Amino acid sequence: MSKAQHLSRVIDRHAPTEAMQSPAQLMDFRGRAITQAALQFAPAFLRTRDVLRITSLSRATIYRRIAARRFPAPVHLGGRACGWSTSALQDWISDPEGYRAPATEDSRGTRARGRPPKYSGQKAR
Q1: Helical spans, DSSP H, in the chain
Q2: 32-55 confidence digits (pLDDT tens)
């Protein structure tokens, strides 16, 4: 199964199906009933677990590619939660080797790596 097909299946699992007659017949993966109203909406963001499953990449590889701008960056949803927009992930799936994340404008600039100057004995810039 291709990555695009797998993404479509993950997104479509929330789509209504004509084969199911009553909401009582619809169950999620935990065995809980799903209502028709809940099925009308596709997820706006895919969580880390879904992205790992769709891309077949490890968590470390995903974050390494994000740092190299070869994978879309996650959107911070609040607290410790983050997710990827389905459109950004679909762009990556359509051309994984040629994908380049758009440059983001950050008013703070890029952060220097390594120990802060106050701890390394160097003078601050």
Answers
A1: 3-12, 36-39, 48-55, 59-67, 86-94, 117-120
A2: 666 666 556 767 899 999 999 989
Rounded distance between C-alpha atoms, residue 61 and residue 96, angstroms: 13
Both structure tokens of 56: 């077949």
The domain tally of the chain equals 1
- 18 within a domain of the structure (yes/no): no
pLDDT tens digits, residue range 69-92? 999 999 999 888 999 998 899 899
Q: In what order do the strands lie in the sheet with 81-85?
A: 45-46, 81-85, 75-78
For residue 86, is it within any domain? yes
* Containing structural domain, residue 84: 1-10+44-101
> Is residue 114 a part of any domain in this protein?
no
